[in-house]
Design a protein that fits this description.
D-Amino Acid Oxidase, Chain A, domain 2, 9-stranded mixed β-sheet, monooxygenase, FAD binding, 4-hydroxy-3-all-trans-polyprenylbenzoate oxygenase activity, ubiquinone biosynthesis, 2-methoxy-6-polyprenolphenol 4-hydroxylase activity
Length: 533
Amino acid sequence: MATTRPLTRLLQSRVLFNQHITQRQPSILRSYATTTQNLDNVYDIVIVGGGIAGTALACSLAANPTMRDYRVALIEAMDLSNTNDWTPETNKYSNRVVSLTPHALNYFTKVGVTNQLYQDRLCPYSRMQVWDGVTDARIEFDTALLEQLGVHKINEKDPAIAYMVENVHLQHAILKHLEACRGVGATVDTLQKVRVENISLDKEKSEEGLDLTDWPVVELNNGMALKARLLVGADGINSPVRSFANIESLGWDYNMHGVVATFKVDPSRPCNTSYQRFLPTGPIAMLPLANGYASMVWSAPPEIATKLKKMPADAFCALVNAAFRLSPADLKFLYSQLDKDTFEPTVDFQSEYDWREKVNNHGLSEMEILDRDMSLFPPKVESVDDKSRASFPLRLRNSQSYFANRVVLVGDAAHTVHPLAGQGLNQGILDVECLADILQQGASNGQDIGNIHLLREYASVRYLRNLVMISACDKLHRLYTTDFAPVTWLRSLGLTAVNQLDFVKAEIMKYAMGIEYTGTEEKQQETKNQNFS
């Protein structure tokens, strides 16, 4: 039967035993030295995937005193040195950003990661505006509503719906804190620039009393073979770990791409609001960054996405401003004015946009025009970092199971969601937090952390919640990517009605922010926090 003791303690006991018999029985020493070398590649936990989910899990385990004796290996195919050495550049932002919920930020504070963040690159926003691109029906969210209703917030000093942060910035902070945890005794080995070649089961039984016959063996392209008491798949949508466990991934592709870009916007506008407009071709969102910058994600069919990436920068900026302010018919006209081969506009997009805006504002005074723009629309785009334009395919996936014997999945390896709600990475962080807590509880109780019964507890917590979020985002996508009159009328009626119901909006905000805890659950959270003190 496999031992439940951390492998670091087993290795230490073998080293002490070898030192004790060195002079009397050198032949036995050689035998144990060979075995000890074999155990160098045996780990309690092997995490495949060094993205945010994988590094966050490694950091969470390293920061927890209960798990500090457990040997952890983190495997990443890419070079992490650039991320580890990253420093912010003035007036330059990455196009890969995440909208961290207050709960996610609170988790990183509990682990100790937020101490490594550059606070001036963390942009909180307290307001959100979402509206129908066909009927202009609108719903507005503001954390001031939670204060009015007396709802508890995770961060009382900074009541934000979410916090915008660059992915590279967040991962940099995680890696820095992981390095600090190593300095106080955490046993986490990072193997970067190596790829998983194969995963199989160990066929041999160790002569040291460790039964490894059901332990996964991760073979790397550098010749190493790591044996894992628990194998964690944090390796993305095409997860080799999931394939090894014979877990099917269910879902479909949307035949749409998310186009991202970083903009310089009107600096006179406050950066405390996010905006999202649902167009028949897909939603477009503008998310605030610090210092007069903003990040955009625009979901569109592949043919439109290609035009958005390749059209000239000035025309692209005009089109983004138009996407938040003009009708779908006007946008359709502008799409048609791009050459199919060169993607050069056949008309002046800025002039076309200005003329149409003038028509929309006919009869309004200058003050009314300014008030309309300030209250309803995001800051106007002034320029785009042309190197920031990129796209990625949109998919929906959910694994049939999140675990198998000695295997567990987190993040995109377990599920992938449409980005319209900005919840994809946050769901992965919730996976990591839940798994780390369950492993800590199992270790405290002397359980085998790779045992299928322990991993089932993780799946029972996370599977349903992820499924609810995936389903909700999919239904929103399908509801709003149509201009069929009866559907648009019904959805606009519903949106307008919800906007009048403060308690409903408060519940939506609480769920999205991750603060839908009862008093009992908050006490449980306080108990968990004490484990990290």
